[in-house]
Amino acid sequence: MVWYQDGSTLRRPALNTSVAAAAPATAEVSALRDLILRKLTYTLGKAASEARDRDWFMATALAVRDHVVDRFLAQMRDRPAASGKTVYYLSLEFLIGRLLRENISNLGLTEELRAALAELGVTLDQARLAEPDAALGNGGLGRLAACFLESMSSLGIPAFGYGIRYDHGLFRQIIREGWQQEYPEDWLTFGNPWEFARPEIRHRIGFGGEVATENGHDGEPRHRWHPGETVDAVAYDTPVVGWRGKQVNHLRLWRARAPDPMRLDAFNRGDHLGALAEQVRAEAISKVLYPSDDSPAGQELRLRQEYFFTSAALQDLLRRHLRAEPSVANLADHVAIQLNDTHPAIAVAELMRLLVDEHELPWAEAWRITCAALSYTNHTLLPEALETWPVPLMERLLPRHMQIIYRINAEHLDAVRAAHPGDDRLLASVSLIGEDHGRRVRMGQLAFVGSHKVNGVSALHTDLMRQTVFHDLNGLFPGRIVNKTNGVSFRRWLMQCNPGLTALLVDALGPRVLDAPEALAELRALAGDAVFQGRFAAVKRANKEALALRIREQIGVRVDPGALFDVQIKRIHEYKRQLLNVLQTVALYEAMRAQPMRDWTPVVKVFSGKAAPGYHRAKLIIKLACDVARVVNRDPSVRGLLKVAFLPNYNVSAAEVIVPAADLSEQISTAGMEASGTGNMKLALNGALTIGTLDGATVEMAEHIGCEHLFLFGLSAAEVAERRANGWRGETAVAASDCLGEVLDAIGGGVFSPDDHGRYRPLVDSLTAEDWFMVAADFDSYLAAQTRAALLYRDPQAWRREAVLNTAGMGWFSSDRSIAEYAGEIWNVPVAP
């Protein structure tokens, strides 16, 4: 049910957007009410009369967790004794967001819980909105991991997610005078009711030290790593509930602890700070998501984080395997390990170390098992995101692993040399050790060589992988690269965040649409139905009113819910081209001022996203967006027809409000640079029309929806590559454009920065020079696409038809489909009927 929060008063919209459900049974509601009250009283120690919203959330979550545990224990009891195959998904990020609504929805408890809380004088939204947003990820990669875990549970695939339990997730973004400032994110301040601490499950993680050679029982030399430093990885489990409670899997996050909490001898000598030094150093590993790696110390901490959780995961899954099986020889028959990007790529060397050194398998057998068990998802073609580590750092921090990597590389290059004698260029290209900028370990190549399958995340991205970063490896291992286009959880991104649209879909298509996303295709027959269009538009209007209220409360800007809501929500990066959107905003603003009598389409530009703390150019783009917003929103000459809103601290909860309200979805990355995108899927699923380049999964969206139903523009990936190769300069585009020069002059000349006229000169100069991200090159094409969108929006019936067709074409982009493909083609695990 859609609700609005206005200060302390909750009001329900006139439109009834709740999904049709039978009235909950009184006995079930009473039992749930009593359970919540017991949790409040005996676990939290609060009387109902004194409880705040956060207390009600905690008590409610603990009561729901009991239901989850009941399902989990019943599932374990009913599972056949013969162990099958388990998927282990290793990811440095899991952007899970709030869980209360997801868990009660998947358990089928929403209406019962709503009624139970009502009997206690509390609304469900009071409890739900008090939950902190677990920001354990940076963006699409981490949110994808969360969607994938939920889909594995929904498809009945036994699985564990492995990551880090960060004390502080991605930073909390504050916008002060237009500049991003970062503050610690404190999601654990009041505890996490969803997790179970498992102090009995801990694994010792080593760093540094030396490697000794010993004679094994078979007379062969054995290598023993004697770390100079050890850290304990302690497990915390969060249940992951599948749709209709089908299965409950685990997200197991590791917290770093020192083996000894402090050095008592140093403390007693009066060295109170020094006594805690080891604890502080150890716990820094799980302190913050993505510490800045601008310094050598930051780089080392990032590597320590990656090895820490990867080693803990591998030790843990081996422990679990050996509880059911007599040896590790058949590990690959029972275990599928998915590496989510290069962050856990050290798993190749670590699994070899564990199998060879700890379990004393022959090298060749260990290598066969490792390659059969591991698979690797590549998420980017950006050089800076394909991790490499300095060899001296690796040798100091992980000496045994460097020995293993050297041997893997030697055998790998021997095989290449035998097949391609005399081809030194090929050897240098496919080596696991790069020599271009100092000797560095190439983690992408390591993951590729040590996996049986390597997948891209959209058809275009996978083709570009074959043609660019892994071109030579693809030639050596044909068929190893496969495509698995991303998807999103329809439970989270339709049913939970847009219950009004869900109710309409159930009414129009029947309840099977909740279980069969492909049924959305039947909406095409209703796209021209005026009555259905009206209901579809009423849902969108209610969602836009909710977003308008949020904008007013967050940044004090009043916007018209009847305007075209043009939304760009994603990490701030030059290749995602928020700058292109800002340039068009300035062009529109200048045109509105120059032609005040023209019948303009009212537009609200919504931006939200975070820039990496050390990414100064991205921070400057945020500042420009805020400066443009300040000028535009205060100018009476545009008569409120153009508003610009930069919403701070973008996270999952913010997306759940923005996505259902969007009319126009900005997917405007430089072609060939966005691996897939998942925001594009969420927005189109909820009836937003896409304005975008043919990049990432937008290519496949255009195929499923129809190119004619998207506002496509700009250079293709091949054309971008050609222009870069031919020395393209943006000044050519400026000279050919009717208005780009004026826009750049206004920005570069200080119209939007009267306090510092030269603030944006670096941005302007970069566009007129190499224009690497093709912002100037695509500007006129983007401007024309924006004009087409504005004109279409003036015809409500035509716009509504297109919006319905966009939703109708999105059934294929479910994460259930993605996971079913992984299961069948990479992991070799069955999907439960």
From TrEMBL:
Reported cofactor(s): pyridoxal 5'-phosphate
Catalyses which reaction(s): [(1->4)-alpha-D-glucosyl](n) + phosphate = [(1->4)-alpha-D-glucosyl](n-1) + alpha-D-glucose 1-phosphate
Keywords per UniProt: Allosteric enzyme, Carbohydrate metabolism, Cytoplasm, Glycosyltransferase, Pyridoxal phosphate, Transferase
Name of a matching Pfam family: Phosphorylase
Keyword Magnesium: no
Protein's UniProt name: Alpha-1,4 glucan phosphorylase
Source taxonomy: Bacteria, Pseudomonadati, Pseudomonadota, Alphaproteobacteria, Acetobacterales
Family, per entry: Belongs to the glycogen phosphorylase family.
N6-(pyridoxal phosphate)lysine, modified sites: 682
Molecular functions per Gene Ontology: glycogen phosphorylase activity; pyridoxal phosphate binding
Source species: Neoroseomonas oryzicola
Highest taxon of the lineage: Bacteria
EC nos: 2.4.1.1
